[in-house]
Amino acid sequence: MGTSFLKFILIVFPTVLFSQTEVYLFSYFTDNGQDGLHFASSNDGLTWETVDNGKSFLMPMVGDDRLMRDPCIIKGPDGSFQMVWTSGWNDQIIGHASSKDLIHWSEQRAIPVMAHEPTAKNAWAPEVFYDDKEKHYLIFWATTIPGRHGDVAESEREKGLNHRMYYTKTEDFKTFAETNMFFDPNFSVIDATILKDNSSYFMFVKNENPNPPEKNIRVVRSKNPEKFPREVSPPITGNYWAEGPTSIRIGEFVYVYFDKYTEHQYGAVRSKDMEHWEDVSDSVKFPEGMRHGSVFKVSEEVLARMKTE
């Protein structure tokens, strides 16, 4: 079946070939993030393949460095997809764009989340989460503000960095609440992500302390997505460095995927009860070169259109 004929069938008879069965998508970046947004897809959460041969679906246009690192995408209550990303290593902004189909995107915008803090060093790995009770989006990210928190033992590479999680709220991505502290544990923290499972909220974070190095993923539970206790679990990842967690429920398991960045590959752990974690890194297969992103569900029809545009 030729590509042009498949496009015709999808436009004229979109339900003939595809039901609304859901599949899994993974947004990610490669290298340093210069070539923008990439996707991988999976039917089972274990074997992942590039979408449209790994092409870039969106090139970065905001920030001093013009990067699109750590792309986080969620589907909002209106059916549109909202994406935020790290626009640069030393930016006080984050990037934002929206899409109805993950192919055609709105104009990219710079959200000045830390512009009110002139000494803020960064705004890293933003994530967006929809609070369906309060009917607004939470956007949260990691920032170092010198002198704001106690010193941590440093490595030379990370000298002067001591991150905490900050956040803002919005209903429409046009107006934003004042930036506030989101999560302030007793360690340098980056790469937070939230999963709602039943009536509880689980936040997975990276302990970034450099010396002695932690570099592992922890989890903390709450009944309120805006208020997490400072106490976190022991590491749920193994004897390797891990960052960039993203999570999803697939059947009886909650999976947490993460970038095993010193090994240049992806790993995963899973749990039935959110307390006991099984490392299944040897069972997952991801495209080579993919970096920190997010996992979410879409219909087969959405994925089919991404492959044929």
List keywords for this structure.
3 helices; 4-stranded antiparallel sheet; 309 residues; single chain; mainly beta
Short synopsis of the structure:
This protein has helices at residues 3-12, 14-17, 300-308, and strands spanning 22-30, 38-42, 49-50, 69-75, 81-86, 94-99, 109-111, 124-131, 136-143, 164-170, 180-183, 189-197, 200-207, 216-222, 243-250, 253-260, 265-271, 278-279, 290-299. With 309 residues, it is mainly beta.
Can you characterise this structure?
The protein is built from 3 helices and 19 strands. It has helices spanning 3-12, 14-17, 300-308, and strands at 22-30, 38-42, 49-50, 69-75, 81-86, 94-99, 109-111, 124-131, 136-143, 164-170, 180-183, 189-197, 200-207, 216-222, 243-250, 253-260, 265-271, 278-279, 290-299. Strand 5 (81-86) and strand 6 (94-99) form a beta hairpin. The protein is globular and about 50 Å long.
What's the SSE blueprint?
Elements (H helix, E strand, L loop, with lengths): L2 H10 L1 H4 L4 E9 L7 E5 L6 E2 L18 E7 L5 E6 L7 E6 L9 E3 L12 E8 L4 E8 L20 E7 L9 E4 L5 E9 L2 E8 L8 E7 L20 E8 L2 E8 L4 E7 L6 E2 L10 E10 H9 L1
Antiparallel strand pairs: 1-2, 1-19, 2-3, 4-5, 5-6, 6-7, 8-9, 9-10, 10-11, 12-13, 13-14, 15-16, 16-17, 17-18
Helix pairs in contact: 1-3
